[in-house]
Design a protein that fits this description.
Layout (H helix, E strand, L loop, with lengths): L1 H15 L4 H13 L3 H14 L4 H13 L3 H14 L4 H13 L3 H14 L4 H14 L2 H14 L4 H17 L1
Length: 174
């Protein structure tokens, strides 16, 4: 419905102004939303040819590459995003997730912490940081993260489950 209509408008805008990196990026986002990842990536790359420091194109290209399992390339685009815009909270968060899946825990922790410095009530970043800390055996720090989530959102089921797991582990270790 609306996404198809948006795509048409972006294509019209590109016929008028083919060097619009924002339009290329937005068209890429609309295509990505439809599951047309390859086409979306082409638009992000076109946006980057027009403006090599286009933050949104780097970030969204990182997301698309990650979705395709091209992890190292995704990491490069997230890092490029952060070089251009160091306070891009979602880039820190997605990079943290990507690094965590790669087993690069210390780097993941660093990016979750950066995300939380920018947005202290970022529930998902607290949870994922807590999970990584738990996996590393930093049970106390993990518990603190899960408790912080429950302070922000007392009904968060993920935080409750993870907190119970961490408290049980803490009990066993005593």
């Amino acid at each position: 419905g609306r996404t198809e209509e948006a795509i048409e408008h972006y294509l019209q805008a590109l016929r008028i102004k083919p060097d619009g990196e924002k339009v290329q990026t937005n068209l890429g986002n609309a295509l990505y939303k439809q599951g047309r990842t390859e086409e979306a990536m082409e638009n992000y790359l076109l946006a980057l040819r027009i403006k090599p420091d286009c933050v949104d194109a780097h970030y969204n290209l990182g997301n698309a590459l990650k979705k395709q399992g091209r992890i190292e390339e995704a990491i490069k685009h997230y890092l490029r995003t952060l070089r251009i815009k160091p306070d891009f909270v979602d880039a820190h968060y997605n990079l943290g997730n990507t690094l965590s899946k790669q087993g690069r825990t210390e780097e993941a922790i660093e990016h979750y912490l950066q995300a939380l410095l920018i947005k202290p009530d970022f529930v998902e970043a607290h949870i994922n940081l807590g999970v990584v800390l738990f996996q590393k055996g930093n049970i106390e720090e993990a518990i603190a993260q899960f408790r912080e989530v429950l302070r922000i959102n007392p009904d968060d089921i993920h935080a409750k489950n993870n907190l119970i797991k961490a408290l049980m582990m803490q009990q066993q270790n005593q």
